Amino acid sequence: METSTSTAEPTAGRDGGMVLVLTLLLTIVLAVIVLALATYAATALRTSRVTDGRNESNVNASAGLDWTIERLAEKQLAPADCDGSDVGVPVAVLPQAGTIAVACTNVAEVNGNPTVHLVATATLPDGTFRRIDALVQVPAASHVANVTQWSTDAPLSPAAASATTTAAPAGTTTTTAALAGTTTTTAAPAGTTTTTAPVATTTTTTAPTTTTTTVTPSGTVTCQLRITSQSGANYWAKLDIVNGRSTAISAWDVRIELGPGTSVDSAYNWDGGTPTPDKDGVITNSDLGWNGTVAASTTRADVSGGQFKWKGNDRTVPTCTVTSFS
Predict the structure, then answer these.
(1) DSSP per-residue codes, 126-179
(2) Cα–Cα distance between 25 and 19 in angstroms, integer?
(3) How far from chain centre, in Å, is Cα 191?
(4) How many angstroms separate the Cα of 47 from the Cα of each of 33, 34, 251?
(5) What is the pLDDT of residues 190-214, one digit of tens each?
């Protein structure tokens, strides 16, 4: 009986090699895909517009725009510089070739300081751009004319001392009648009679008294003239009034005199209307906008010694002397 012996060919080793080859090929394919995605993302980052929540922006222009805003803030732009046009910014601030346009508009006041609205836009050669909106306060020291000296023709601040006389209630008269006299008779061998005379009537009179109270002057009226914006050839002024007295301010007749031979008569009303006093009747801080105009060519020398005059029906608000102007 013949016995045949056959040896089976091993398959485990061959299958393992195929798995290794497939794994290597898959790794290579994945690496290629990841590299392609990374390259695409880097390109998109340079060329696409990214929304930052307020404006379209581009990372390439970030450094240049931030620098621009800082320089503009340091420049202390006056409202006259903010007429909506390009204020002029060097293009060298950009990390690559391109342009920056900055529109500056006087929009409001914050805490009494003129505030400008800056819109800076950087445009790069590839068409991408970044735009920044910023509100920049103009320092008050650069644009406030402090008016603290009163003129001699209306020295009404503070108010003169006043005396109030208060009369006491009319004198009173009180009459008290005594009890009737009594007679006591005591019987004795030689009888004795004792008589008590009646007590006389008493009259007391209280004389009226007068009280005089002197009121010491308190509180002052101060004001400052501020140039808040510029339109064409004219500045627009605003007058701040801080009045510590119980004074009503109304019926304005306004005139501004900015030095020898320079005067502007104005029929404008205060844009804030008649200020409303506090509950105690004292106007503590009234910001009254005066819509009068002052020629842009006016200089500090023209203003020196001039007067900003106004009055009410009762002449209770004095005239200010303008000591500075900007």
Answers:
(1) TS-EEEEEEEEEPPHHHHEEEE-EEPTT---SSPPPEEEEEEPPPPEEEEEPPP
(2) 10
(3) 105
(4) 21, 20, 63
(5) 656 666 666 666 666 666 666 655 4
pTM of the model: 0.20
Tokens matching residue 274: 């008649």
Determine the Cα–Cα distance for residues 178 and 165; give it in Å rounded to an integer.
Answer: 40
Backbone dihedral angles phi then psi of residue 21, each to the nearest 5 degrees:
-65, -45
Query: Where does the pLDDT of residue 13 fall: very low under 50, low under 70, confident under 90, or very high at 90 and above?
Result: low
Tens of pLDDT, residues 162-192: 455 555 556 566 665 555 555 555 555 565 6
Q: What is the DSSP letter of 270?
A: B
How many Å separate Cα 72 from the centre of its chain? 21
Q: Are 157 and 311 in contact (CB under 8 A)?
A: no
Nearest Cα residue to 127 out of 62, 46, 230, 22: 46
> Is the distance from CB of 165 to CB of 211 less than 8 angstroms?
yes
Domain ranges of the chain: 56-138, 145-161+217-321
Query: Which spans in the chain are helix H?
Result: 12-47, 62-75, 140-143, 300-303
Quickly count: other Cβ atoms within 10 Å of residue 118's Cβ: 20
Tokens of residue 103, six digits: 């529109």
